[in-house]
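Sequence, please.
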């Protein structure tokens, strides 16, 4: 999956330490104004489960939709989609354990453990216990979305997987990533993150704006989770067990997809009922880079009335 490669190149295995830990706020800067606006509008809730706590932000009103961010990210991965999606839906957007504002994870991380943690949080947050939700997962979040759908198939209406690959095998690691650990100069850090965004996340480098750089910098510096056991715990068979309404959404130039159109063929071959949507000109972080194309697509998917059938056993 994209996530293993994303982890390897971003170096998110350990929490910032030493001088870097002391410099995180200086290097990462304050929350950008656009993100601060959405932070101020959010209903922020924490759902403790034993020693672990998930931090959620909730926006909007309407049918419930869960948005799951990618590796070394946070709720801000969805910043360009919140306006459109919250217009007709209640958005439940967590910072996954060890990411963003979530506490460090105290157990050995696993996809199944994270999925259960998220479901138990939703049990507290949803207006009715067992209420069905739509789940949209980006990159790492798409793998968690699959795991959640297998754990509670009757509670998932629509599943939207936003990533470049739907194959089971490992993906090639993109070349040209610059290391950022140990960098304490804000200008140098910003230059590195802008470069890495162009290699990993955004195809059209003209679309790498100051907001993208600021969010990327804050997100990678605030990631404390050792991703290795989480990524190793992925069960590829979960993808094959899915059923019902499934959508795959890929940027045309997603670096983790190789032949992205062919990956769409893999999705439809495994799940003939699935729909594949290719976003022209976009890279991996298409929900940011091509929000003007993604938002109408996602809004249309969520507003359709196609029935969902449970995941197979």
């Amino acid at each position: 999956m994209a996530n293993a490669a994303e982890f390897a190149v971003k170096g998110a295995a350990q929490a910032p330490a030493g001088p870097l830990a002391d410099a995180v706020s200086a290097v990462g800067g304050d929350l950008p104004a656009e993100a601060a606006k959405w932070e101020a509008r959010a209903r922020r809730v924490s759902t403790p489960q034993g020693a672990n706590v998930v931090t959620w932000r909730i926006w909007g009103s309407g049918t419930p939709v869960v948005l799951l961010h990618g590796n070394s990210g946070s709720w801000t991965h969805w910043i360009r989609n919140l306006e459109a999606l919250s217009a007709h839906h209640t958005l439940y957007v967590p910072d996954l354990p060890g990411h963003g504002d979530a506490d460090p994870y105290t157990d050995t991380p696993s996809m199944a453990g994270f999925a259960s943690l998220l479901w138990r949080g939703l049990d507290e947050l949803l207006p009715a216990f067992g209420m069905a939700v739509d789940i949209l997962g980006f990159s790492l979040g798409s793998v968690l979305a699959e795991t959640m759908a297998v754990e509670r198939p009757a509670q998932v209406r629509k599943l939207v997987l936003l990533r470049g690959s739907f194959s089971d095998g490992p993906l090639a690691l993109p070349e040209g990533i610059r290391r950022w650990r140990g960098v304490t100069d804000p200008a140098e850090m910003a230059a590195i993150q802008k470069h890495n965004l162009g290699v990993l996340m955004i195809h059209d480098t003209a679309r790498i704006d100051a907001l993208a750089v600021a969010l990327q910098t804050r997100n990678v510096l605030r990631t404390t989770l050792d991703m290795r056991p989480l990524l190793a715990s992925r069960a590829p068979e979960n993808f094959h067990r899915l059923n019902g309404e499934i959508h795959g959404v890929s940027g045309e130039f997603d670096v983790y997809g190789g032949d992205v159109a062919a990956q769409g063929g893999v999705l439809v071959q495994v799940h003939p009922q699935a729909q594949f949507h290719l976003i022209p000109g976009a890279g991996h972080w298409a929900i940011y880079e091509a929000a003007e194309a993604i938002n109408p697509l996602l809004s249309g998917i969520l507003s359709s009335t196609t029935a969902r059938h449970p995941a197979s056993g």
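Confidence is low (pLDDT under 50) at residues 1-26, 307-313.
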